Known about the structure:
Region (Disordered): 877-898
Helix content: 25-40%
Number of strands: 37
CATH class of the largest domain: Alpha Beta
Distance between the termini: 41 Å
Keywords: ATP-binding, Nucleotide-binding, Transferase
Organism: Amycolatopsis umgeniensis
CATH topology of the largest domain: Rossmann fold
Mean pLDDT: 90
CATH architecture of the largest domain: 3-Layer(aba) Sandwich
Number of helices: 27
Protein name: Acyl-CoA synthetase (NDP forming)/RimJ/RimL family protein N-acetyltransferase
Low-confidence stretches: 1-7, 443-456
Pfam families: Acetyltransf_1 (PF00583), ATP-grasp_5 (PF13549), CoA_binding_2 (PF13380), Succ_CoA_lig (PF13607)
Strand order of the largest sheet: 1-2-3-4-5-6-8-7
Radius of gyration: 32 Å
Shape: flat
Strand content: 15-25%
Number of domains: 5
Largest sheet: 8 strands, mixed
Amino acid sequence: MASEDTGNRDPFDFPREWEADVLLSDGGTVHLRPVIPSDADGLVAFHGRLSERTRYFRYFGAYPRIPQRDLERFSVVDHHDRVAFVALLGDDIVAVGRYERLEHGPSAEVAFVVDDTHQGRGLGSILLEHLAAAASESGLRRFVAEVLAENAAMVRVFRDAGYQVSREIEEGVLHLEFDIDPTEESLAVARSREQAAEARSVHNLLHPKSVAVIGASTDPTKIGYVALTNLLSADFAGTVYPVNPEHKSVRGVRAYPSVVDIPEDVDLALVAVPAEAVESVLDGALAKGVKTLLIVSGGFAEAGPHGLHAELRLVGEARAHGMRVVGPNALGVLNTDASVRLNATLAPRLPARGRTGFFCQSGALGTAILADAEARGLGLSTFVSAGNRADVSGNDLLQYWETDPATDLVLLYLESFGNPRKFARLARRLARTKPVVAVKSGRHAVRPQLAATSAEVDESSVQALFEQAGVVRVDTLAQLFDTALVFAHQPLPAGPRIAIVGNSSAIGLLAADTARAQGLRLASDPVDVGPQASPEEFAAAVREALNSPETDALVVVFVPPLAIPGTAYARALREAVVEMDKNKPIVSTFLAVEGVPDELAVLSEDGVPTRGSVPSYPSPERAVNALARVVRYAAWRQRPQGNLVRPAGLHAEQAQVIVNELLSGEDGKTTLLSDEDVVRLLGCYGIDVVPFQVVTSADEAVKAAEDLGFPVTLKAVDERLRGRPDLAGVRLDLSSVDGVRRAYLDLREISGDDEVYVQRMAPKGISCVIGLQDDPSFGTLVSFGLSGLVSTLLGDRAYRAVPLTDVDAATLLREPRTSPLLTGYRGDEPADLAALQDIVLRVAALAEDNPEVRSMTLDPILASPDGAFVANARIVLGPPPSRPDTGPRRLRPINAPT
């Protein structure tokens, strides 16, 4: 293939989306961008730092210095046929990767070299990903590389990238070739490396060996005093360095005038100075080589545009020098591990050790959250309050907790999304092994200070994201802790059948009513042992309920009798449960206590409630509601994950040709496709529209009916008229010439339009609608529901995010409340759900392949026992939206929503 003329390209003018901050395998960062002519001096300095061995491996010879002619070739490229990326750490180039197109064809030679001190950090694989993405944009399809056989590290980069690499060796030189189109294996490799790097960066944050408190104060009213006090009170296992230029010691610990004066390495710097002083603090931290900056100071993005500008500048500078940032406006981070004991927060106490990780955006709520967890008997493994989330976000924590052996349960308090598409991917993977419970605030409003720094996601998108990812969504912090107590202390149920045991019929009935309302099944009628039953009789009833094979979970409701202390009954319950070990979850309404009372607790070696403890709730409704969320999660986890399915007969390349043709000359505008173009595009994905013709006279209508085959339907071309009740009569089955002629004349008179649709009558069926809607930050959602005004008013639609598995498609069809009409409600013959599911998967494939499809509606689809028939479709095309979770690995741009 011939390349375009690039001779007049500006070597400074590269695609700005190619520039990125990237995270390396050790958790550090570098800045990646295309090379420009002014990098010449940096390239010379970089080359001068390379060892003789590294230069020999790269240039197949000594090559002690770069000749002027080569320097110009290395630094001046056209960003199309000749592309080069430099990796920058501060002002220093630490790696270079480049490709050059071969003979104007679809192949290019690729090569890269990494500074000796930065080898082993994953820079080679990062450069290869970004070069491959740039090459694909420039029309290239294949990379070739010449590598010395003894250069094992470079050979490994190509071998482990997930591409199908062919190898030939001649005189000690390996000739490698591979197609650069992403494969399932190459995408999996990139995701795995992304996960490892992001988890490592959070590990660095939560396991520091040294912490500097910049702004440590002797004034108890200052946050610098509080932060230092909390670190010392928690008995941090590492070294604490107060930084205060005015005092030789703070709280009895030697202080240093600045962070650069500290004699040892600093892993974490906690910044507690006014916002206007943070920039000067950053300079010292960069010079010191601090790994992570934790900024508890406020006055940044939450304070307005000037604060936002300062925040973006701060994070950009930190990342460029290899540092990650938590905050600003953060409460802090903590790790209860006995070998760490880190309390780098403004909360006064290190929580009890547990196996629950907690991420919170709000610094203001953080202290209350920690106090509530302690009061309820919920121990934590780690806690991060990220404030403005200028850099480190909840997605980073999900990556860490997935592989953290100390965390079994993840709790999230989210006020907004930064990258919802990535969140869905990570949460879905994590929830398969560890429950994720989330409060998503801002359901009906978003705080003004978050509006400029957060991605807007509509409610249907959020709900679809959570349901598909298996995230347990709750509405309040109280519900979050109610649910967490079950997950933290009790096993998952095998099914939805619950037994109820208590000493009050009234409370037992309340529990039963709530269970039915939540879709749970009663294993038997509630058991009432009576108010006079002894603790032993009460425990015997519990044992009998747990022993029943019909019981998957147990609810205990108890009102303390006047004559006997309730503690005796609580101890009897705990002993019965521990003794039986039936692996069935138990919740209780006991002693009017909220949390885990001592009498119901099974204590760890640290003396805190652990697995086997029975949570108690002030009311039976709260107990059952918490259990119901756990039951639904367990059912989600038991379902097959499904497979990403692409039905047969898809023609993606042909569809892209059509899309490009239809968008050419539109200059970024959206365009509603004509019916003929809709049929062409859908046809590329095997979606057939019931045949139709557009006519402009009664004679044409009759001829169309004869061509299509009677019976037919007639409808107005003007979409605005199609829903009018007075047109319903002319859209009935028309089986004769006279009927068609009369219907055409009636419709023309009513609509005032000569153009009318004549369409072959599809088999009678239930009218359904499948749609696509695009959320600018979340991606594409597929929706399904039954057509009609009632379904629309009730909002009876189900949603799934693209891409879809076969399980996603199947559950999508069964989720609307009206879906029983498709499965034989009241004895009707069921519709062909397999045919409907096939259309859903084809729609999802179309959306995934063609992001230019901004919306689509197939309405109606007539679902019958004979199949599913699309009678009408509407498609809108437009410029493809940015997808924050596609392409080569990169950190979220610092000017993007957080």
